[in-house]
Amino acid sequence: MAKNNCKYIFVVGGVISGVGKGVTSSSLGLILKNRGLSVTAIKIDPYINVDAGTMNPTEHGEVFVLGDKDETDQDMGNYERFLDINLTRVNYMTTGRVYQTVIEKERNLEYKGKCVQVVPHIPMEIVSRIKKAGSDANADVVIIEVGGTVGEYENILYLEAARMLKIENPHDVIFVMVSYLPTPSKVGEMKTKPTQHASRLLNGSGIQADILIARADTPLDEKRKEKLSMFCNIPVDRIISAPDVESIYDVPINFEKEKLSERLCDLLGVVCKKVDEKNWDKWKTFVKKVHNSKDTVKIAMIGKYFETGDFVLSDAYLSVIEAVKYSSYMQNKKPIISWINSADLEKNPAKIKELKKYDGIVVPGGFGARGVEGKIKAIKFARENKIPYFGLCYGMQLLVIEYARNVLGLKDATTREIDPNSKNLVVDVMESQKELLDKNIYGGSMRLGNYTAVLGKKTIAENAYGKTEIVERHRHRYEVNNFYVENLEKKGLVFSGKSKDGNLMEIAELPKSKHPFFLGTQFHPEFLARPLTPHPLFTAFIKACVSKK
Ligand code: GLN
Fold this sequence. Notes:
Blueprint: E1 7-13, H1 21-33, E2 39-45, H2 57-60, E3 63-65, E4 71-73, H3 74-83, E5 92-94, H4 95-107, H5 118-136, E6 141-146, H6 156-168, E7 173-180, H7 193-204, E8 211-216, H8 222-232, E9 239-243, H9 251-257, H10 260-268, H11 277-292, E10 296-303, H12 313-316, H13 318-330, E11 334-341, H14 342-347, H15 349-353, E12 360-363, H16 372-384, E13 389-392, H17 394-406, E14 414-415, E15 425-429, H18 431-438, E16 447-455, H19 460-465, E17 469-476, E18 478-480, H20 485-490, E19 494-498, E20 505-509, E21 518-521, H21 536-548
Parallel strand pairs: 1-6, 1-7, 2-5, 2-6, 7-8, 8-9, 10-11, 10-12, 12-13, 13-21, 14-15
Antiparallel strand pairs: 3-4, 15-18, 16-17, 16-19, 19-20, 20-21
Helix pairs in contact: 1-3, 1-9, 4-5, 5-6, 13-21, 16-17
Bound molecules: glutamine (GLN).
C-alpha cells in the first residue's frame, strides 16, 4: 500500500516537447527533497515499445540502464542524478508495458470474467503502477512525468489516469504544465497564445494545471504573467518564469528564487520544513564550480551516432558527458568535449594524428561494425602516444582487440559482432546468449544491470575505487574470450576487474608504469556518476588528462 498521505505531482508538456520536462521534474524533486520530503519519480514514455532497449539512440537518445536491468529513457538518469537515488523498473512506464500487463492479467482470469476495456482498465493499471512506485520507495511525493505534450493521441490514457487518481484523492494530486513561449524574431515579442491553447487542451481532459513553468529564451515580464494567469486560470504567483540557463543544474536554484518549493508544499497540503542547508549548500557549491571552472581539459569522444534525425548527437551519450563533467568540475576544470566521427578516422590517417591535441580520449559504448576500425586506430594511437584513454563497454572490447592485434600479433583479432568467421574471436558471445540470438530474442536479453566485480590488488582500478569489490551496471551481449586472457596478460595487459568466479573480464588496463591511463570497463560506469559524488574511474581518468596537460 502507498503511504496514506502519499502525494502525486504530474508534470505534463504544452506546445512543444524537448524544452525540459525531465529537468523540471528532477528539479521539483530536488527542491522538495531539500524540504525533508522523500521523493521518487516516474517517467512515462507513451510508445508501444516495452522498453527503450530496442530503440536506436539516434532517434531516442541514450538508453539508461537501471540496477535491476531495466532499459529506460535518459530522463531516468536525470532523476537519479538530481535526487541521488536508485530507481527500479516500477519507475518506468511505456504503453507497451501497460498493455502487456493488462493482457497477461486478462489471460490469467484476474478480471474475473469482466469485459476488459481500454477505459477504465488501462488507466486503472497506470494508476496502480504509480501507487506501487510510491509505496516501494516509501515516498512522500511521487513525481510523474508524462512524455510528449498534451493533446497528443498517445497522451490521452495517461491524462485520464491522472484525472482518475485526482478524483479519488482530490487533495493529494497536483498538475504542473511545462510550456514554451516563443519570441518570433519578426514580431520581437514573447507570445503567450500557444500556451493558452495548451492549457485549454489540458482542460479538455478534465485537468486544470496548478502551476505553469514558462520556458522561454528570456525571463517572463509581469504583463505576460498576468495574461497567462488570466487565460490559463492559474494565480500569478504560480506562473514560474524558467528562462534558458547556462547549465541544467541552475534550474532548481532558479526555481527556489521563485519560492517554488513553498508553493508546492502549500498546494500538496504538506508542512514546508526548513531547507536542509547542508545538502543545498553542496549543490550550490557544485553549481558554482560549473560556472567558475575556466581552466579547460580537452576530451575527444569517438562515436558513430552522428546522423541525428530528431536527436542531437550528444543525447546518445548523455550520461557519459555528465560523468566527464562531474569529475572535471570536481577538479575545477572545464571539460571541452569534441565529437569525432569514427568513420572519418578510418579514411583519413591525418585525422588520427590530430588526436594528439587532446588531453584524453574516450570510446563510449556502441554496437555493430560501422566505424569500428577508426575506433581501434584511435585506441592504438592513444596507447602508443601515452594519451589517457578510457573505453566504456565497446570501448573496452576494442581496447582488448587492439592489444591482441598489435601487441599479441593476432592480426585478425576481432569480435563476433563484426566478423563471426574470424579465427581469432578475442571478443565472443556466451553460450546462453547464442541461444537467445538463434531464437531472435533481442528485447531485454543482453547482460544487463548490476553485476559484482572483484578488483586486482594495486591496480589503477583498485586505487581509484579504494576498495576491492564493486557493483556496476551492464548492457552488452559480448564478452572477452577467456581463451586469450592468459596470453594477453603475459603480454602485459592486466584484467584488473573480474567477476567473482573469475570467468568474466570486467576491467582491462595497462599498469601505470607503462601508460598514464589506459583502461576499459565492460560495464557502464557513467550510469553511477552523480553531481555530488563523481565516479571514481572518471575522476582517475580526468586526473590523468590534467597531468598530461
Ligand atoms: N556491442 C557490444 C556488445 O554488445 C558492446 C555494447 C555496448 O557498448 N553497450 O557486447
